[in-house]
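[step 3/7] inverse_fold.run input=structure_tokens len=299
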């Protein structure tokens, strides 16, 4: 198998701080702009972690009190700081933080999984070190889900015989380092009557693929997040394509970013398709295409 150490992609992180002063980071691709904190309109019935609504170029923008959402002390001066405006998973919102520090450039291999024992309540997807300081990479999807969870996916209509037959042939592995995103995908698959295997990292995914190889449960479809620690979805795809036993896999890359912006990179890595999180109907359609490809060899 190709060396994992050779599968590093570059990554840009925006470093910021909350009141505690500890360094946190967010993938720069998820940031659209940074602005001083403007005056906010308070909404009396809003979620307690939503500070209010800002107006940005005539459009309303929900502002999340990130310190409160993470269970930390609020900013000493509530109207100070700045807003990090994010666009992910088909939604736009702003994070109120103490200060933006700088942008750093690193390799995905420099981002390590959260320390063992972080627990399911942790709001980080990885850690790295900058100038000998620990930096925690924010799981922004989990923050947003805790404030505004997506509506439950409607129960699917009864699958027709052809679709049911196709899905019966699908052995699916879902790879995502965000527990929230992973559960969303699992829920969609279960609504389709599909049991799937899961992994929280590319390394764990490769180990599982090797374990199931040659068994009745051998994986034939991989649905992988792109923005993961240590080895991202592009690097995982390239590694699988360069490995004879796995190069036949149908690979769907699932991203919290705009998939139209990442499509060419996904194609060059060897992915069969790419999809923006999270739309249960669109994921279902993509899985049907994947299952048809597996059954009829239509890569």
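[step 3/7] decode complete -> sequence:
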């Amino acid at each position: 198998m190709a060396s994992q150490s050779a599968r590093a992609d570059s990554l840009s992180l925006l470093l910021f701080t909350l009141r505690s002063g500890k360094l946190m980071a967010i993938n720069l691709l998820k940031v659209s702009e940074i602005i001083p904190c403007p005056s906010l309109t308070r909404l009396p019935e809003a979620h307690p972690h939503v500070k209010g609504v800002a107006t940005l170029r005539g459009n309303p923008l929900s502002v999340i009190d990130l310190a409160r959402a993470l269970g930390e002390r609020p900013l000493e001066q509530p109207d100070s700081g700045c807003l990090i405006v994010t666009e992910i998973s088909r939604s736009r919102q702003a994070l109120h933080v103490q200060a933006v520090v700088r942008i750093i450039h690193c390799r995905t291999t420099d981002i390590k999984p959260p320390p063992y024992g972080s627990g399911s309540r942790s709001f980080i997807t990885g850690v790295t070190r900058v100038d000998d300081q620990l930096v925690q990479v924010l799981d922004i999807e989990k923050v947003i889900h805790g404030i505004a969870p997506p509506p439950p996916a409607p129960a699917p209509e009864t699958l027709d015989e052809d679709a049911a037959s196709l899905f019966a042939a699908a052995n699916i592995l879902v790879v995502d380092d965000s527990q929230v995103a992973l559960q969303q995908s699992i829920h969609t698959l279960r609504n389709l009557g599909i049991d799937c295997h899961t992994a929280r990292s590319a390394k764990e995914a490769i180990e599982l693929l090797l374990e199931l190889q040659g068994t009745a449960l051998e994986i034939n479809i991989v649905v992988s997040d792109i923005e993961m620690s240590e080895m991202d979805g592009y690097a995982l795809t390239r590694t699988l394509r360069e490995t004879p036993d796995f190069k036949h896999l149908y690979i769907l890359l699932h991203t919290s970013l705009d998939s139209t912006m990442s499509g060419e990179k996904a194609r060059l890595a060897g992915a069969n398709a790419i999809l923006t999180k999270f739309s249960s109907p669109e994921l279902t359609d993509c899985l049907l295409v994947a299952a048809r490809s597996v059954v009829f060899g239509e890569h």
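[step 4/7] annotate
The chain has a mean pLDDT of 88.
The domain at 4-147 is CATH 2.40.50.180 (OB fold (Dihydrolipoamide Acetyltransferase, E2P)).
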